[in-house]
Structures are given as structure tokens and as C-alpha cells.
Amino acid sequence: MTEAPFSQVGPDLFRMGYNPIPIMPGDKKPGMMVGDEWRLFKGWNEFCVSRPSQFQINQWAKWPLAGVGVACGQGLICIDIDLEEAVAALLEILPLSTVQKKGRKGISLFYRGNTEKIRSKNFRTPERVGLVDLLAEGKQTVLPPSIHPDTGEPYYWWTEGTLLNTYPEDLTELDDDIADQIAEVLKQFGYDPEGDRIVERVVAGDIPETALTHSSDFYRKLNEDALANLHAWVPKLGLPKCQCKFGNVYRAVAPWRASGSGRAVARRNPNLSLSSKGIEDFGTGEKFTALNVVMKVMGINDSERDAAVQWLGENLGYNFGIEIDLRNRRKEAEALGKAAQHLTPLPEKIIHVSTPTHAEPPLALRAPVEATYVNNDVADDGITIQTPTWKPTKRGNLVGLLAPSEPPVPAVVDADAIPEEMGTEEVPIVPPTMDELEALCRDVPGLIGEMMDWIVGCSNSPSRPLALGPALTFVGTLAGRHHEGPTELRTNLYICALAPSGYGKDHARKRVLALAEKAGLHTNYIGPEDFLSDSALRKTIERRPSLLSMMDEFGGFINKIMDRRAGSHQSNMRTMLLKLFTMSDSSYQGTEGAQETATPIHNPNFSIYGTSTPHDFWPSMSGKGIGDGFLPRWLVLTVSGEPLRGVAKTHDREPPDRLVEWCRAIVSLSQKGNLPPSSSRPVQALKAGWGKDAEACYEYHRELFSKRANAMKNEMSVLWSRTMEIALRIAHIVAIGVNPEYPVVTEDNMLWAIRLVELSVRSCLIEVGDRLASTEKQAEYLKVRRMIKEAGEFGLTDTKLKAQVNGEFDLARLNAITTQLQESKQIDRKFTSGKTGGRPTFRWVAL
């Protein structure tokens, strides 16, 4: 079988510094394979402003018959001359190009130039006959040896110089005003500078090779269409108080400006009017175009106007086509570009990586830290052994284990404020904040980050913390059994997200399920939402040893397996979950029964993502969950505050093809001989390596957390026991999402995961102290204290406290509890007014 064009030259183009992209066989459009089917690659134009990863290049090179193109932009420009008669005249004014290619007609010339100033442009006659295409950012061109769709013959290089032997910086440079020079020459061939600004809609199936020129006529037409079809786009903006009146007139609040009277949005009048006659804010007298409104609502500035054009046009039914995707991702590209500068090519084949020498993909949430190493071991022969002891320098930061100075966001304290022997004495635990958690849930690299972006982008009430849990557990499940971390840990996780009722906790679960279904992975990797017995759990994992169960109302499941009155078939599930968590790198032997034979499960990779409210979860957990090590195995993400409402969606609910491709690729790597179809035999896994300073960072914090546990001197110290184990699993999963073929646990990944897990432990310590009880009397005591604590600085009057107790126990018991709490200096009575003022009275307040 003939090697595909992309496979032949794509990797070499990437090494030369260009951004190759896959082209559908026998076509000019970028494409991608999903399963055995070719589809349009709708997100290809991001590679005009950012580099693809080595992993993506490797995957594309495996696709049969894939053609090869190159994304223009980032300095690369191609001038594609369609009109043969114009070639000689244009070559007189164009500088000599040392790299040229040919297809069916004309010629394509490659240059370098300032693509911030030289923009893509189509030169056409008034009859829409193509003359020249100036291809810069947002465009691509097909390269040899791809097959031309019209001739059936391959494209070919016209010069000795090609993109395969010429670096981008060695290409001939163009003047910034080259478009004006070309326009002047083309006038003799029928080009009309005014006529080419007339823009028509693109019809499906008739997609040109280059994008439409956005002129004033185009914007006028776009606005006219938007006013004529308000129903297609106005409701999707999520404007506050948006209502349709009189059939075709919308009224809403203009959220981009403050109220003149200082009122909150909920109390403002809907002064923004959107009708077929125009858009006006009666509060200020300003008038807007439809595009202005979209840009204001979405916070898009003028330099990123194309993103608003894309959104509005697609909602109006414009078919921009695969080559007219105008979304501007410059901010993302800049971040990715910085990351790419740190990358060096990986070796062709790696089975086990221990200490890779290549630089690791950096994480955006990096706390700048340097490591120092102390020679603290001396061998018997007198030779000093280097044992790394990871310590932050004065300009670094350390994960916040101590009470930080105000404000406590993020969970980091200055290294200078940390004593030399930190961890040797007990310090108060600072309650975590939502700002800390939200900050950690942004800019996560690779597949995990892109899944989160999609999940929150297609929700009217987005929450990044609620998207993190299912993303981590799903990727960990796909990678399970054929990946192991540097310390042989596998990728199974137990994660519980706690949020108030009405927070939309089911959205992320549903989106991950939809992604699994579209990728064809739900049958093998998504498990039941509940289990009735330990036998059912064991049989399910026997059949599908790498499995994710996403459970709603998770507090009920915990209550079922923790209740002292539960039957053995339910309480044994807790014991089984304890063992499954730690046996993913070996075998779970199970329990022999009278009716069933214990069947070994090799390398079980069972993960759980559960959602619940704090009020349901914590009372169900009980003190038993701490004593036997059940709770320490969980990453608990506590979401608080008011949920966001009415946020404009930025993504479609349909899982993106890019994510589908990525997930299938992770699984396909395991189907090359190292993942058996069942749990009947052990698995030889790919071992991830340590990046620079990552192992030292891991060891340093493991010792630090051990000291923290020893300093607590109570049963809750066990919550620190598995902190670093969970952190390393999470860092490993993120690394797999960056590069499943050669995952490397970097120092950045490790620090981020440590901060996330430490936040979970702090939350658990606070909640356990407030909620978990060993006896019913202790539960009543904790409940009263929690009621007063949650009331805040204004406290509770006796009347309100009695109302909240609501007859759960008698008033004599309530008086005894408040007296005991007051004597132990946990609450006190203060004579003060309430939150809204009024007459002062005695109130219970927490100390």
C-alpha cells in the first residue's frame, strides 16, 4: 500500500518549523478520521496561530491516504496565482521566491512576512473569477505529494527549494504593502478593487479555497440579516430579562454597562430594544448593530471581531465552510506558543521512560519554583550520593499548608514566611475558598483542559470545578491498565464534587457520557450509576476491568455502604472499593462464596465520579470512613456560592470531533498488544517518566505531608496519608492528556496536582470537624455549632436557632448543647443587630 502523503512529508515539515495539517483524500479541505470515516476538520485554523503537538503529528501520520497541507500565518505566506496570464506580470513586482509549487494551473509562491500586517485577501473580477489568493493567517494550502482533486495527479515542487529543505526564516521576505502592489498589477486583468468587496453567502458543497473578504458591504449584509432574523440569535446571547414582545421585538437589560441609578441587574428596567428596525439602548440613547451587541455581550474587542462574526453568522445560517472558520484564538495561541518553545522532539520509540532529557510540556498554572539539592547521603566507600531535597528558593512559592496571610487566595504562602522545620508543629487549617478552586481549574493543558473548556462552554450555568472531576476520571479510565506512573501507580481515581442543590451538577456527567457515546467508548468504559451488592460490583469489573461509574445523589450511595445497619452485601462494597483503589497495579483476588468462585481481576482500573450536596454527603460518610482510610482515598471538590446563570454559550453541546479523536487515540494505543480484552491476565503497562525536578518535588512534599500528619496527633491526621498518591495519579493523567504516547510527569503538573489535593484535604478537615460524629449526641452537638457558624458574623437569635432545629431534639437538649459550646469557647452570645439592622438583641455567634 502506498504511503499517505502526510505520512511521507508531514513529520519532516513539522521538524522544519512549519505547521502541517491533514487533508482529506482527493480533496483540498482539511480533514480528520473519526473511526474509519473522514470528516471535515472544523478546528484546523488554530494551527495558523499555534503549533500542533508531536502527538498530533504522529496520529495524523497514521491516517490512510491523508493528504498534506500547511497552515499559513505566524510569518508564512503563500501567493497562489490562478490566472496563468497574470503570472509574468506579477513576477515582475514580486521578489524572487526560492520555494514554489504547482497544481492544475498557475503557480504558488512561498514567502515570509509580517502576518500581523499582511492579511489574507482574494483578488477576483466582478464576475467572481479568481485571479490571485494571498494566503496568510486563517488560510492553508495543499502541498506535494497530495493528489489534486481535479487532475488526479500529485502536486509537485517547481523549484529545487521546497518547504522540506528551506527553514521559514530562509524564505524570501515580502513588503508589508504587497497586497496593494498586487492589486495595482491585477487591474489590467479585470480586477476591480470596489467590486471584490461584494460578498455572497457560501453554499454548502461550493466552498472556495480561501476565505471571504470582510468588507463594509459584508458587515452591512450581516447586520441586515441579523435584524431580519432576531429569533435565530438573540435568545442565545443570554441577555438579562430578555423577552420577546409583539412577535418580533426583544427587550432586555444591557449587561455591559452599569445602571445610572446604581441598581443591580435584577432590579434594572429592560431598556435595550432589539427589533427589525434597529437596536437601541433607551437608557443611554445609544444605537448598535447586531455585531456590536454580540461583541459587547461576549466581551470581544475589535482585534478579535472575527470571533463575533463567526458566532453571529453561523446562527444566521451562513456556511463559512471549513476554510472560513474565523474564530480568533490568538490568546490561546500565544499561551500555546510559549509552551511550544520549551518542547524538543521526542525519540521515535520509548517503552519505559525513567529520566527523560527532553523538556516537559509546561502547565499554565505554574508557581515559579526552583529546586536545590542537598548531598545528604554518604555511601560506605565515602562517595557522596546526590539525594534531591526539593526546596523553594526565595523567589518561589510553596503550596499553602500553613495559615497564609490575608488574602488567602490562592492557596500559597511566601517561602520566606515558612520556618526551616515547617511541619513539625500543628498549625490551624485555613478554610479553602472558591477563588482558590476556580483558579486551579483554569488553563489546564492538553485533553483535560479542552474537555473542561467544552463542558463549561456549552452550559448556561458553567462551573469549571464541576467539569474537572469527570474529565480527570474519564481520561484516567481510558488510559487505565496500559499506563503506569513513575512509581507504578495507575490512573484510577475516586472524586466527589459537592455543590448546593440546583447547581447543575448533572451537566458535566451528561456531556462526558455524550462524548463517550460519540467516540464509541461508552459500552466498554462507562459503568452503572449504582450497584446493589458487592457481587454485582465484582462481576461488572470482571467483564470490564477499566470502568467509570458516574453517580448522582452520591450521598445516598455512601450512606448505603457506611450504615452500620446495612447488610453485608452492601457494607462489603466499601471494603471492596478500599482494595480496588490500591490493587490497580496488581490483582484483586476477591472473596470465595458458597455460590460463587472468586475470580482474580488483574489490574482493575475502577474510577468513581460522584456528585452530592454537602448536607447529604458528610453525615453519610460517618467517622468510620476516616478510621478505615476510605475518605483519604477521595479527592473532594467543594463548590460553594451562587451558581452563574444566563451565561452565553461559547460551544455546541455536540462533542467536538477533536475531543472524539483524542479519546479514541488514547484507547487505540492500548490495542496494539498491551491491553487484553478482559481481566484474565496481567497487563504490561507503559511507564511514565519524571520531568526535570518533578521527582524531587514529589519527594519533598511527601515528607512534608507526613510531618503535617504527625503534628496533628488525632484521628484526622490520616487524611494526609494518601495525599501524594492521589496528586501523582492526577499529574499522570494530565500528562497522558498532553501526550499519551510518551507521558512525562513534569514539575509543573506535580505542583498543580499537589495544590489541588491539598485544597481537598483542607476542605475535608474543616467539614469533618464540623459534621462527622461518632454518636448521635455528638451529631446533635456538631449540627448546632454548624448552624451558628453558617449564620456568619450576625449570628442567630434563640428563636431562629430553635426554628432550624425544628424539633429534632427537645429544648432542654438544645440548651445543654449551647451551654457546652459556650463553655468550650466555640460560640458566644452578643447583643447586636442583624444583617438588615433593626433592634439589637442577643444572638449566638461562632468564635
From TrEMBL:
SMART domains assigned to the protein according to its UniProt record, in alphabetical order: Prim-Pol
Recorded superkingdom: Bacteria
Xref: InterPro entries: DNA_primase/pol_bifunc_N, DUF3987
Domain DNA primase/polymerase bifunctional N-terminal, first and last residues per copy: 10-171
The protein's name: DNA primase/polymerase bifunctional N-terminal domain-containing protein
